[in-house]
Request: fold
Amino acid sequence: MPVIKAKDLTDSVADALQYISYYHPLDYIQALAEAYGREEAPAARDAIAQILTNSRMSAEGHRPVCQDTGIVTVFVKWGQGCTLDSDLSLQAVIDEGVRRAYLDPSNPLRASIVSDPAFTRKNTRDNTPSVLHVEMVPGDTVEVTVAAKGGGSENKAKFKMLNPSDSLVDWVLETVPTMGAGWCPPGMLGIGIGGTAEKAMVMAKESLMAPIDMAQLKARGPANDIEALRIDLHDRVNALGIGAQGLGGLTTVLDVKILDWPTHAASKPVAMIPNCAATRHAHVVLDGSGPAFLPAPDLAAWPAVEWAPDAQARRVDLDRLTPAEVESWKAGDRLLLSGRMLTGRDAAHKRIQDMLARGEPLPVSFDNRVIYYVGPVDPVGGEAVGPAGPTTATRMDKFTDTMLGLGLLAMIGKAERGEAAVAAIKAHRRAYLSAVGGAAYLVSRAIRSSRVLAFADLGMEAIYEFEVKDMPVTVAVTAQGDNVHASGPSAWRKPVFVSSRTV
Reply:
């Protein structure tokens, strides 16, 4: 009877989490490289180039591919012939691995987990606890799949209790456009069909752990109804024209994964969870002989894609930026920002709103400034800041009118803005700029200095001042209200063909 030592399991989890923070799965990189080669939309092609370049930089530098290093989900298939040599619970043993990985001084990962989620939302500071799923299976090994899921994609999870006669395909095609681009496409869609509500959600998440094989599946042809459904959904979702980062293009999803389970005759539960451009997961097997460590991948497997600033991009001096210059920007313009900018996201915006309501003076002036929605990773070595990609901008929509009223000239985030935010931007004659989600290490190289100006107690959600040099962004919403996240997908949308299949 194999004995799994607690330390071996802890060490394996810690190693896997560090590994996936800076190494993309090769299947994702290869599929994304193929999508890059096919992409015709300039903005989407540029975004994919940034993601691929960022991936190679992260692999070489052993720094996170994304500043949101995720909530940890662990799937364990515990062989019934194995025993755990520990007085601690399995949850505690695995969480110790999470703790070590996220506090590793050579590559600290951002702690994003908050306890007391309905009220105080206090950061646990070490990214524990993880979300653990355990299945007892025949055998004498322990299989562990470790994933780190960013909030931007996790927040787009969807569930619907369909009627048995309802079309799953129709629901997916109606729902995906409502998810926007905060999940950082191109990525994958995981779908769970059947069981109960919670079973469908777990299956959708677990399906994302499988390798990307859509190209191979299409080459050999589907062997069953589920595989045929995967192909059908893959082609139909890409025909929506959403594209990389929601900018419009040919590739929104690289693969669609589906798991199913028998369900009640009166029910048809369907869950859908997207995986983002970070797509972090790894699989290890323990047999009692020691920890399971993952071998480093061959960096030669990465495509020879190296993003460089667009020669036609407009250079913007943030320290001399004027309302008139902001009004001259057109939707889709590529900008290279240099100078000083502020940062601030959910917690900072909420605190500012509360201070204004109480009539208290603000610690920072926002007049004629640009704010970046970001929560960076802590720096190491000589870094000014760790990976610092944008967070989902729609979470700041309800604060937009207030913040623009304080004098902001522009905001930077990822993905689209809601109707109210676009209306506020137009009313104030300001702009929203989009940075590429999934290119956090690349973006951080543009940041030359960083200092906390206010709300230091909020950690990564404090208000910083960054000094940047040639930070790449795209004008997403103009002072006139033109919105590239609406016009881009519209331009690349294809007619949705009628399927002969009824699902």
Remarks:
- The two ends are 46 Å apart (CA to CA).
- The CA atoms of residues 141 and 287 lie 5 Å apart.
